[in-house]
Design a protein that fits this description.
CATH superfamily: Ribokinase
Protein name: Sugar kinase
Distance between the termini: 54 Å
CATH class: Alpha Beta
Shape: globular
Number of domains: 1
Keywords: Kinase, Transferase
Pfam families: PfkB (PF00294)
CATH topology: UDP-N-acetylmuramoyl-L-alanine:D-glutamate ligase
GO molecular function: kinase activity
Domain Carbohydrate kinase PfkB: 17-274
Number of helices: 11
Order of helices and strands: EEEHEHEEEEHEHHEHHEEEHHHH
Number of strands: 13
Strand order of the largest sheet: 5-4-1-8-9-10-11-12-13
Radius of gyration: 19 Å
Strand content: 25-35%
């Protein structure tokens, strides 16, 4: 099964307490595509400038990512510069230069329009709705967003949410969008806008999934080394939707397994800067960490009833 992803391809400069890199490969669509490509065929829709390095194109192609939807326009590629303190859950943006991404209009190639799965990465919700109007009856649509759109285009975002199946969003954004400090009540309010489920990313505390019928909590993997959390959320989404597409099922069991695979992929991504860890990652490592995730929260039923 194939996945179409629409989002950003960028050059990032990142500083953390553990190191610093300049103009490395980044962007929401890049992290998602690389992660999802371990499980499924990925078709990327994004825009870069004429300065975008050829080595990054070669890398994406090496992951068998279809780049027919990657536009290259006159001008410079989108750039983001940020830093993290020891609280790696929060990025401090130092500089953003949208460049060619400022006027990005997603163009969906004909061969993409019958994709089975669609991921709308963090872009203008009006553009997200336009993409959905261009694709033909996908089986499942997932959408990510951020506080910039929650604050700037809340009505457009609500409209987009009425057309999707899965909202992937972090805990602070969930509370802000719902105007509700309690994460459970906030998720319930957002579900009323149309999504079948909401997956709340909680960084080092794991993830929560809410649907109208169930709640699922996934732990975060206890890592010895975290160097760069940039792109972890999009890597999570890629692992989640990539797995779902690979088995072509989205029942309760599949969704829970997909969330764990998303957590697995994100746990690898943060071990190094940019996509360096994903570049060297193997499927055997993914399988082994999935097993380790299962052990993290496994416990047996009681053999005897509790007594006072």
């Amino acid at each position: 099964m194939s996945i179409v992803v629409v989002g950003s391809v960028a050059l990032d400069s990142v500083k953390t307490p553990f190191g610093e890199v300049e103009e490395v490969l980044g962007g929401s669509a890049t992290y998602f595509s690389t992660s999802a490509s371990f499980f499924a065929d990925v078709k990327l829709v994004a825009v870069v400038g004429e300065d975008f390095p050829d080595r990054h194109i070669k890398f994406l192609k090496s992951r068998s990512i279809d780049l027919s939807g990657l536009q290259q326009r006159p001008g410079k590629t989108f750039r983001w510069k940020g830093k993290y303190g020891y609280d790696l859950n929060e990025a401090i943006t130092l500089d953003t230069k949208l460049n060619v991404f400022e006027n990005f209009t997603p163009l969906i190639p004909e061969e993409y329009k019958n994709a089975d799965y669609v991921f709308l990465a963090n872009i203008d919700p009006e553009l997200q709705s336009n993409v959905l109007a261009a694709v033909e009856n996908p089986k499942l649509v997932a959408l990510d967003t951020m506080n910039f759109w929650i604050e700037g285009k809340p009505e457009a975002l609500k409209k987009a949410l009425g057309k999707i199946d899965v909202l992937i969003i972090n805990d602070g954004e969930t509370r802000e969008f719902a105007k509700e400090p309690n994460i459970v009540l906030a998720a319930r309010k957002i579900l009323k806008l149309g999504p079948r489920m909401i997956i709340v990313k909680r960084g080092e505390y794991g993830a929560l999934m809410f649907s109208n019928n169930s709640v699922f909590a996934a732990p975060a993997y206890p890592l010895h080394s975290i160097n760069d959390p940039t792109g972890a959320g999009d890597t999570f989404a890629g692992g989640f939707l990539g797995y779902i597409a690979s088995i072509d099922r989205f029942d309760e069991q599949a969704i829970r397994q997909g969330i764990i695979f998303g957590s697995v992929m994100a746990s690898f991504a943060v071990e190094d800067f940019s996509l360096n860890r994903l570049i060297s990652l193997t499927m055997s490592e993914i399988r082994e960490r999935f097993k380790e995730f299962k052990k993290l929260s496994h416990f047996d039923d009681l053999h005897e009833p509790l007594e006072k």
